[in-house]
Amino acid sequence: MNTKILIVLLVLSVIAAGGYYYMQQGASEAPDQVEIPVSSLPSIDEAEEETEVMDTTETPKTNLNEVDLGEAGQKRNLPVNESLGVRGLGDPNAPVKIQEFFSLTCNHCATFHTGTFQELKRKYIDTGKVYFVYEEFPLNGPALYASKIARCLPEDKYAGYISVLLRDQTVWAFGGDFKSDLKQRAVLAGMSEEDFEACFNNEELQTAIGEQIDAAMDIFRIRSTPTFVFNDGERILRGGQNIESFDGIIALLSGEEESSSVSAEDLNSLKQEIEPVIDQQAVSEMPSVEEVSSELQEIVEDAVEEQREAWDQMQETVPLEETPIEEAVEEILPQ
Question: Distance (Å, rounded) from C-alpha 236 to C-alpha 99?
Answer without folding.
Answer: 10
